[in-house]
Design brief:
The complex is a heterodimer of chains A (328) and B (502). Chain A has 328 residues and is mainly alpha-helical. In chain A, the strands form two sheets. A two-stranded antiparallel ribbon of chain A has the order 1-4. In chain A, helix 3 runs antiparallel to helix 11, helix 4 packs parallel to helix 6 and helix 12 crosses helix 13. The two termini of chain A are 33 Å apart. Chain B has 502 residues and is α/β, with parallel strands linked by helices. In chain B, helix 8 packs across helix 17. In chain B, 47% of the residues are buried. The radius of gyration of chain B is 26 Å and the shape is elongated. Classes of the chains: A mainly alpha (328), B alpha/beta (502). The interface between A and B is medium-sized, with 34 and 36 residues.
């Protein structure tokens, strides 16, 4: 295989390069950026979106999307806080929260394959529904979580922050599922062409539901970390996070059109977005500028991706034209 | 040594398929023996695809018997029965590797842990058996069309140990790639694989096949040994007699030139030149994918092109559809459902769509429509569209009536140039004849007509002249007095690599 093809197969290379450049720029802006503590804090900040982005990668790779993850995050947090307040049982609260997150994600998948509604509309509807369910559950009150929960968000194990450890575990599982299992391969195949996947007798429905369920469970894990870091349930939790998650996945090198994706890229994408926050912070930018910058970055990434696809199509057309000329 | 008659790999009798009561294929009966290459031939729409889909298990037959290696089965199970197909549109997953594509429906290892080295090995074996060298780690999207075709065959052969169905395998190949494919087919033949070879190209069929099965209008009209059947006889079998319907009368065209096309080129065709006079019907014959629709769409301003295009003496430079419409050009799409009609909207709105500005009221600027309903009613009567009311959704009409609505929409613009792409596709006989009469009447009234059709009898009936297109080129022109159905189909279906005939 030629070097060019070999390199093009490493689809997270562009985001890794961009992140490296961002690191260099930031270390020029601030001497304390490259310190061990600061880098650690960047990773901790990125962990919640990175974990969700890993789940989202599986969904997007099947040519789907889930914009209800912010609402799943909010519902899971609400359920956990409410159960902790009412029962005080960690085991019950953890089990219920993670199970619910998985079921809500899977429900999206079931609706999408069963009624063949576009994922965007399906999850737009469930987004509103899940958020409403959460508010109904807690009566819109802010609920603090017990102090020990802080361990999950700010604690350290073997002097490594717990969120980073959790991210590492999710990353390892994600990489394994993506690269070594039938599920991972089938998910990519479905994203390439659901029609061909059906003709090849692949379990399209099962794989799709499983991908959305994975999106759910990773959101559940992220919800618990976020809750621990914030210290309690607040009404604003999860609003707008779907944008950051999807942006991380797309910046990472996963194609929105499906079929081609990278788990590592999604994690780096999440880190890159935190670096942008950091940079704007260091430059004392107005808080209103943040969203403008992040939105523009995503737009640029999508446009670059689109241009490369168009160029490839143009190349195919030119080949075709050359062939027609040659047969004359 | 006594040689027993071998058992047929695949044998069908009285195979038929009906969709919602309408029979599209019937009376297909043949036997396929190991090491045989059988050509399945027929014109566009003769039922080859439906037959193929029944043979490879994608469609259950409505009637008839299928025997695989002597055992009667109700539906073919490709994997179990050793029958595989390579479809015309490749079904590969472009961002997966060659090895992943070949093995995807039967991966080695456990579901939770694919054995990648074994997968690569299987793929390499498959490809080695075909005698080709392809890097199995390569992504499929990085391969050329020929190699993709070979990967697809390797994938099919993983299970197709007995029967391989190849549907138009050569259309996207270059000459050397095609030769390699033929070598491969010969090798498989030697290994005892039976091959069903679907192709439009007669020279390929004569080069490769032992036997043929000929379909026409969904019916098997002949079968036999290729060696005993002259090419002309087979071509006549495919075309059949022209339909015994009342012929339309054509009036001679005027001498005034309406459309002039000089050295038109684009990605889909090359160096196309022709002219159409007022009152003339110019037919374009050719196979699917020959570039006919692309030429038609280009003339309507839908596609960019190089070369010269003149409409009534005026040169059009980068024309838009709007500009072409203003010059009196109209285009009837070949895919009325996708590109033509507004399915959920009413017959009335569909009829007025191309000439809406005429109905906009002037009194309160841009508010309300006037005369739309009465105009629509007029067209319904004139074209004899059977519809309970003009407010009926157009999707509820039959194919023939839908087509008439679309035709009515464009005739309402009072065109001077009519580009008609497959105007009678999926239309019943009576509607077809009415449309034919309308086309002849249009020409008689001085409109220049460009008629693209895969229905050869239709072209022969309606055209003053016929151009034949093949792989993006014009390869022949026939004046009405020289029309020869067999010659035309033979020209259209010669392989692109054959030297052009005189």
């Amino acid at each position: 295989m030629s070097l060019k093809h070999r390199l093009s197969a490493v689809n997270w290379l562009p985001i890794a390069a961009a992140t490296l450049v961002a690191c260099i720029l930031l270390s020029l802006l601030s001497s304390s950026f490259m310190s061990y503590t600061n880098l650690q804090s960047v990773l901790v900040q990125a962990s919640v979106t990175a974990i969700m982005a890993i789940g989202m990668t599986f969904i997007i790779v099947t040519a789907g999307i889930d914009i209800s993850v912010g609402a799943i995050l909010f519902f899971t947090s609400s359920l956990f806080a409410k159960l902790m307040m009412d029962t005080g049982s960690y085991a019950l609260a953890f089990a219920c929260a993670l199970l619910c997150a998985t079921v809500l994600g899977a429900l999206n998948g079931v609706l999408i394959i069963k009624y063949k509604i576009t994922p965007l509309i399906t999850t737009l509807a469930t987004y509103t529904m899940y958020r409403g369910m959460a508010i109904h559950l807690t009566g819109a009150q802010n609920i603090p979580v017990p102090r020990e929960m802080g361990f999950l968000g700010n604690g350290k194990l073997l002097s490594i922050p717990v969120p980073i450890l959790l991210l590492a575990v999710v990353l390892a599982v994600g990489l394994y599922l993506f690269n070594a299992t039938r599920f991972g391969l089938y998910a990519r195949a479905i994203g390439n062409s659901a029609q061909s996947a059906r003709e090849s007798n692949l379990p399209v429905n099962k794989v799709t539901v499983f991908a959305y369920a994975l999106g759910g469970i990773t959101t559940g894990i992220a919800a618990l970390i976020l809750l621990a870091r914030v210290g309690g349930l607040q009404s604003g939790i999860g609003i707008g996070i779907e944008f950051t998650v999807i942006a991380a996945v797309v910046l990472g090198g996963t194609k929105l059109s499906g079929g081609d994706g990278t788990i590592v890229g999604s994690v780096i994408g999440a880190i890159f977005l935190v670096l942008i926050d950091n940079g704007l912070n260091l430059m004392n930018a107005s808080p209103y500028v943040y969203d403008i910058v992040k939105g523009s970055v995503l737009l640029i990434a999508v446009v670059i991706d689109k241009v490369s696809v168009t160029r490839q199509q143009q190349h195919l057309l030119n080949q075709r034209a050359a062939r027609i000329r040659a047969t004359g | 040594m006594f040689i027993k008659q071998p058992i047929a790999s695949l044998s069908v009798s009285g195979l038929a398929k009906a969709f919602s009561g309408k029979t599209v294929v019937r009376d297909v009966s043949f036997s396929l023996y190991p090491g045989e290459i059988v050509a399945l031939v027929g014109e566009n729409g003769a039922g080859k695809s439906t037959t193929k889909n029944m043979l490879c298990g994608l469609l259950p037959p409505s009637e008839g018997e299928i025997q695989v290696a002597g055992q009667t089965v109700s539906v073919v199970d490709g994997k179990q029965h050793g029958i595989g197909a390579v479809h015309q549109e490749l079904s590969l997953f472009s961002s997966l590797s060659v090895a992943q594509n070949i093995c995807i429906s039967d991966l080695p290892g456990k579901p939770g842990r694919i054995d990648w080295p074994a997968c690569r090995q299987i793929a390499e074996q498959q490809l080695a058996q075909l005698g080709v060298d392809v890097d199995v780690n390569q992504r499929v999207e990085n391969l050329g069309a020929g190699k993709q075709q070979i990967v697809e065959i390797a994938k099919a052969l993983l299970h197709a140990s007995k029967v391989l169905i190849l549907d138009e395998p050569t259309t996207s190949l270059t000459a050397p790639e095609r030769e390699r494919l033929f070598t491969l087919m010969r090798r498989l033949k030697k290994q005892g694989v039976a091959i069903i070879f679907i192709s439009h190209f007669m020279d390929e069929i004569y080069q490769m096949s032992d036997k043929f099965i000929c379909l026409r209008d969904g019916r098997q009209v002949g079968s036999g040994n290729i060696a005993d059947t002259p090419r002309r006889e087979l071509e006549e079998m495919m075309v059949g007699r022209t339909l015994d319907e009342a012929k339309v009368t054509l009036t001679p065209p005027s001498s005034e030139q309406a459309v002039l096309v000089e050295r038109l080129s684009s990605h889909y065709f090359h160096d196309i030149s022709f002219s159409i006079r007022r009152g003339e019907v110019l037919g374009i014959a050719g196979l699917m994918g020959a570039g006919r629709t692309e030429v038609a769409e280009t003339l309507f301003g839908l596609r960019p092109f190089e070369g010269r295009l003149l409409v009534y003496g005026e040169q059009m430079i980068k024309p838009s559809v709007r500009q072409m419409k203003q010059r009196g050009v109209c285009y009837l799409t070949e895919d009325r459902r996708r590109n033509g009609l507004f399915g959920v909207r009413s017959v009335k709105e569909n009829l007025s769509a191309a000439k809406l500005s005429r109905f906009v009221q002037r009194r309160v600027k841009g508010m309300g429509f006037r005369g739309e309903a009465s105009q629509a009613q007029e067209w319904v009567e004139q074209l004899n569209i059977s519809v309970p009311s003009i407010d009926e959704a157009v999707s509820s009409l039959s194919g023939g009536n839908q087509q008439k609505v679309l035709l009515g929409r464009w005739l309402a613009t009072q065109p001077r140039v009519c580009i008609l792409d497959e105007p009678t596709k999926g239309v019943d006989i009576s509607a077809k004849f009415e449309i034919h009469k309308k086309i002849a009447a249009l020409a008689a009234s001085g409109v220049a007509v460009l008629l693209v059709s895969s229905d050869l009898p239709e072209l022969l009936d309606l055209s003053h002249r016929i151009l034949v297109m093949r792989t993006g080129h014009i390869v022949g022109e026939f004046a009405r007095e020289d029309f020869d159905a067999v010659e035309i189909i033979s020209l259209a279906a010669s392989s692109a690599f054959e030297k052009q005939r005189a």
